[in-house]
């Protein structure tokens, strides 16, 4: 598990955060990093199951299902990646999966119940906000297996958590952001203030602090005070006015690299960046947003990725073979469960030494010489 990560002794630059702004609560992968493959081993209390490459007769009637959170399956982020994993596994198994999209939080429980009545063998719920509804459904239906993406709060024989220590990859993203910044100010803001969001923000801020320590610089972080665990949040995971205003708050503080954490909220941040027309860039989260959203690809310096698709696919295929386990999966840099996407259009615009430095930092995190901890990481 992740309890062995401890805080790196850093001399942090004091993050800049306007007191007047508190927005209410809330592929090639980079060189040397390949995200989790279907046969990858995800760290934690056990190994990820091996994904099968042939359709199994015994699994032909196995019905995997999924419920999205309010972001929907077209969020170009974690819901979409989960759905892609579901579809890939179903194709291998030769079955037709069922997927239900949640319009808002009020239908989480009913959407899960609808899949139980449709005889789903495994129900995967996407996102931390479905935890309560999943826990209740798992308790009421002990003969149905469940898996949770981005939540590890449920302890039950029929629930398997799929989580990611994204603070490690976000540390790399923060370092890269600081190295690229021309204004000496970078920022991050989130949707809801929940662990699966703040874990990105923690790693990002610590990566900036590490850059400052190594380079004797003073790049500032706005939007998140990692020590106080306070920052800018939109209050949800929808693109819209709140997300655009949050991004504008950071732009007004001279941030020229911004990491929005919360599914579709990056889309509104992208609009704010375009409107500002100051050469500001974004850091994506969950997926390589350069690849998943071509309409905004020119804005993305890089992305902090987690292997939701292959992890989901492997869990389903293992369960279909009768190997369901409640042992949590935790993706890390060591097992390629998280990573940093390529710099794509910015590969010739970053410092020439940056990629080599990132490889060294990654190796240090893996061997323990650089230790990374977020209060939001799975214990």
What does this structure look like?
- The protein contains ten helices and 15 strands.
- It is α/β, with parallel strands linked by helices.
- The strands form three sheets. It has a seven-stranded mixed beta sheet, sandwiched between helices.
- The longest helix is centred in the middle third of the chain and has 21 residues, at 195-215.
- It starts with 42 loop residues before the first strand and ends in a 12-residue tail after the last helix.
In short:
With 379 residues, this protein is of the alpha/beta class. The protein has helices at 78-93, 108-117, 131-140, 166-180, 195-215, 241-251, 265-276, 289-292, 308-320, 354-367; strands at 43-44, 64-67, 98-100, 122-126, 145-149, 159-164, 185-190, 220-222, 224-225, 230-231, 257-261, 281-286, 300-306, 329-331, 338-340.
């Amino acid at each position: 598990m992740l309890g062995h990560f401890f805080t790196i002794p850093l001399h942090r630059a004091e993050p800049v955060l306007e007191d007047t702004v508190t927005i209410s609560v809330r592929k090639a992968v980079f060189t040397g990093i390949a995200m989790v493959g279907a046969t990858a081993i995800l760290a934690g209390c056990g190994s990820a199951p091996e994904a099968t490459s042939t359709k199994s007769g015994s699994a032909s009637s196995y019905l995997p299902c999924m419920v999205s959170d309010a972001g929907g399956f077209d969020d170009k982020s974690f819901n979409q990646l989960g759905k892609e994993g579901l579809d890939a596994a179903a194709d291998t198994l030769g079955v037709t999966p069922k997927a239900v999209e949640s319009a808002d939080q009020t239908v989480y429980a009913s959407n899960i119940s609808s899949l139980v009545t449709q005889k789903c063998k495994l129900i995967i719920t996407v996102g931390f906000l479905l935890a309560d509804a999943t826990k209740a459904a798992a308790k009421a239906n002990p003969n149905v297996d469940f898996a949770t993406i981005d939540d590890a709060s449920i302890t039950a024989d029929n629930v398997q958590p799929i989580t990611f220590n994204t603070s490690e990859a976000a540390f790399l993203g923060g370092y890269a952001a600081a190295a690229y910044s021309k204004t000496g100010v970078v920022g991050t803001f989130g949707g809801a203030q929940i662990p699966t969001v703040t874990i990105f923000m923690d790693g990002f801020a610590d990566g900036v602090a590490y850059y400052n320590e190594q380079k004797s610089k003073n790049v500032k972080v706005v939007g998140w005070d990692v020590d106080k665990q306070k920052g800018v949040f939109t209050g949800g995971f929808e693109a819209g006015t709140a997300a655009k205003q949050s991004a504008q708050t950071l732009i007004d503080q001279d941030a020229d690299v911004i990491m929005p954490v919360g599914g579709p909220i990056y889309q509104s941040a992208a609009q704010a960046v375009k409107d500002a027309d100051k050469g500001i860039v974004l850091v994506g989260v969950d997926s390589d947003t350069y690849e998943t959203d071509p309409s905004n690809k020119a804005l993305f310096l890089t992305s902090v990725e987690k292997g939701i698709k292959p992890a989901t696919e492997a869990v389903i295929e293992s369960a279909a073979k009768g190997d369901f386990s409640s042992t949590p999966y935790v993706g890390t840099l060591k097992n390629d469960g998280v990573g940093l996407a390529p710099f794509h259009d910015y590969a010739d615009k970053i410092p020439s030494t940056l990629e080599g430095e990132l490889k060294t930092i990654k190796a240090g995190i893996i061997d323990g010489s650089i230790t990374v901890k977020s209060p939001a990481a799975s214990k």
